[in-house]
Write a structure and sequence with these properties.
mainly alpha; Helix Hairpins; 2 domains; 3 helices; rod-shaped; transcription regulation
Length: 115
Amino acid sequence: MDPQTQNTSLQRLQNVENRVVKVLELAGGVMEELASPSGPKKEFVNSHCREFMQSMKDIQVTLREEIKSACEYRPFEKCDYNARIANEICFQKLEYVLTQLDDLKQTAGQYPSSD
């Protein structure tokens, strides 16, 4: 997850936090209305309950997306460590083979040719 994606994710989670606060305020408003000595206003309670439920659904969707995104995050997926190590090992093997070939060439040069 690159820093830009992480920033965006944190911003979305902060927005969810703000929406949770708003939902709690809605729920508190409904509770106050229900406890009103003159009795609750049905229209007020209904509209706040609808808004509460819609907000809860939106929050749930956003949190699911964030959880899914976090589960897909693989920090070492783009790491080239394994490739670099394999490359270094191959390079050292190649150097060893070249020194062996040089030694073989020197040894072969010490013997007279049979032409």
